[in-house]
Amino acid sequence: MNQIVIREAYQTEYPQIGEMMVQVYSSLEGFPQQEEMPEYYEMLLNVGDLTEKEHVSIHVALDDDQIAGAVVFIKEMSDYGSEGAATSVLNACGFRLLAVDHQHQGKGVGKKLVAYCLEKGRVLKRERLIIHSTKPMKLAWAMYEKMGFVRNEALDVSKEEIQVYGFNYYY
Question: What is the rounded CA–CA span in Å between residue 111 and residue 117?
């Protein structure tokens, strides 16, 4: 693996990022499939639309100029775009939809994307960074906890398709 470079995604990369996210999420064992959550998968496919909100940006991890992974970073939680209490938390940032392309998994790309988001939050002088995860995302969940994220049940969201669990990282 070459040096991973992380930068803000170009608009022209949004469709490729969306397709990668659909592939990654639909392959998670136990995660609802496209027919079970069509609106969610439509949102993934059109992930670039999320950047229409003022405080939302997409960032890519590049390995040899290939998109190895991506994440959606949210500077202000009011633009987080989820159900539940997370959108009302002040002085916090967050990230959503972290995905690592299948051929780049297990190489530390996800960890580098998380560290990148944590640094962005630190620069913004936020008190905490908020994320959500699910049980089928067990590898990511373990990584988050090793990196210092703490479960916060007050941020949990229960959807009929799947339970979504909230986490905080306190600066």
Answer: 10
Q: Which residues pair with 61 in a beta bridge?
A: 6, 69
For 44-60, the pLDDT digits (tens) are 999 999 999 999 999 99
- Give all domains of the chain, ordered by start, each with its CATH number: 4-129 (3.40.630.30)
Alpha carbon 149 to chain centroid distance? 14
Which amino acid is located at 49 in the chain?
Answer: D
Catalogue the E-assigned strands of 19-162: 56-63, 66-74, 92-100, 128-133, 150-151, 157-158
| Residue 109 CB partners (closer than 8 Å, separation 6+) | 4, 61, 63, 68, 69, 100, 101
Range list of H helices, 27-158: 38-45, 109-123, 138-146
Per-residue pLDDT tens for 92-136? 999 999 999 999 999 999 999 999 999 999 999 999 999 999 999
Q: How far apart are CA 52 and CA 120, in angstroms?
A: 19
How far is 85 from 67, CA to CA, in rounded Å? 32
